Amino acid sequence: MPAAEATEQSQGGASSVSYQGATKRYGHSAVPAVDHLDLEVEAGEICVLVGPSGCGKTTSMRMVNRMIELTDGDILIGGESIKKRDAAKLRREIGYVIQQVGLFPHRTIAQNIATVPQLLGWHKDRVRARTAELLDLVGLDPELAERYPVQLSGGQQQRVGVARALAVDPPVMLMDEPFGAIDPIARERLQNEFLRLQANIKKTVLFVTHDIDEAIKMGDRIAIMKQHGRVEQYATPAEILMAPATEFVEDFVGADRALKRLSLMRVADIDLWKAPLARAGQPTSEVRAELDAPDVEVPYALLVDERERPRGWLTQRDLAGDTVPRTADAPLGPVLETGDMMRDALADLLQGESMYAPVVDHSGGVTGILSIEIISEFLASPVAKTEEQSAVDRPLGIDRESEIAADE
Amino acid sequence: MNSSLLGMPIAAVGEVGEGFFKERSTETLGCVAHSSHLFCGGWALEHIGDYGTPARQQLEMVVLSVLIGFAIAFALALLARRFRYLEPPLLAGTGILFAIPSVAFFLLLLPITGRGRETAIIALSAYTLQIIYRNVMVGLHNVPDSAKDAARGMGLTGRQILWRVEVPLAIPEIIAGLRVAVVSTMAIATLAVFVHAGGLGEKIYGSGNLNFPTTIIIAGVIAIVMALLLDAVLLLIQRFTTPWRRAEALA
Known about the structure:
The complex is a heterodimer of chains A (408) and B (251). In chain A, the strands form four sheets. In chain A, strands 6-7-8-3-9-10 form a six-stranded mixed β-sheet, with helices on both faces. Chain A has a four-stranded antiparallel β-sheet with strand order 2-1-4-5, covered by helices on one side. Chain A has a three-stranded mixed β-sheet with strand order 11-12-13. Chain A is an alpha/beta fold and 408 residues long. Chain A is built from 17 helices and 16 strands. Chain B is mostly helical. In chain B, helix 5 (87-99) runs antiparallel to helix 7 (117-141) and helix 7 crosses helix 9. At the A-B interface, helix 3, helix 5 and helix 7 of A face helix 8, helix 9 and helix 12 of B.
């Protein structure tokens, strides 16, 4: 984003967040809401705090900007204790997004986004430029700037909420179930948009949710909390799915955790079958020979055009003649892209009632075949081909402790 | 109540009704002062100028009373917001003031503050407290918690949250309270004549006027028109200070 670089930033970058025995006790209650929490969140990562309600995840998050004051222990942001800072000034440097959005109903979208810049006394030209830039960043029409929150949909409002939190380019963002109150379709879109945004801005994000699927999708690292802010496991999503550290984590992740691994992988991450390609006019003998080759597992050849884009499946009847016909007998069915999530690819296959589907790259050319069989083999095997290769290179459920240790 | 203290015959009220019907139907007297014709147009045209001063006095009393009442009620509401436990006693206290019969209130103040406009304004302001206080509280309560939480989370101080978020959002309820206060004060202010504070009450309760419907009607109409004008001013203020409400109506 050249525009973002052109604007002079007061903050920029990202800072690590370090919980050091952070404790919150309400009144004289014997049981602390959060008990000696130690957690290291690396700069530029999304750390998801997830757990059942009452586990202390929101309290843990709200301690960072002192919305909830620590009873004991400390939290360091970029190595600096939050206790030394004036609470209001500290909060202006930390993005804050909540489930109910909390836009000011009496202020226009532009005024809402400008809240923190105005508190920091930015010049109004700079505020205006930054507002326009942020609307663009979160994918909102600049015309919405002069509207009031009530005139926007829930999804649009939460985009404004994110833009407002990013206004002064804070190094840390706190997000408390930000997409929790949004309908499932819009939520999915907002999640994807935020991940795309985060790939550019690389903020340190503390993200609270009770939804393990959202945690797996959004988190670079997930802290699964049980009670009193006790972290049962702090690891990457893949590690948590492959090797839950405790019974609690296993239960919380759910019996379908093997399936959930599919939402961590893209089609490009898995070994595809070789596609037997056939072009119109090609001798059928060649095609039949290719189908018989030992490394070809699909029983049908794929008709492609001159740019190797898939056109249809060739049946035995299509191959009865001397040359490959122009059109295929069997419809093409679903076509997958290398960037698709494995979970979505499986859904497409099931919905299309297909055993196989061609996979195409950006240019639309066929790169291979994905089959139900490949997916079921992947699910059955403990060894998933992910970037967490080292962590998962052995049977499931063995030696979990050493894996956690290896991670640190 | 001692009627000599009032300097006017309250007993006359009872005779008005009788006169209204009897004299209008039987008498053919011209429309002159203190005739009991329902309305004497000629007399009204001739004497309308006499109503200027009472009307101005009335308007001043109402505006001042509502402004003072607003200042006090708003301060009380801020106190109650800060110290939650004060909310019920303040509501009860202003409620008791509101419940005192108005003529009695004016007369009770006489030995303390003496005759005159100040006494009237004290009583009238006290009456507005309940309405305005209650509305300010409702307005502040209606501010969405999420907006306050977001404001705090973004680093607004307590005072900034109050003046930039809570008060602006409470304006519709506050103005609704002021509108009721203005109209009811306009009505009660006619009783200020009992403490010699002037106002349109002079033209209603003044010597002999209770037998003369024309003057009661003129004074009444002036009071109503002034109440409507003040109400319109408040509506205009609301329109200019709450543009988001129109957006809400359109959404």
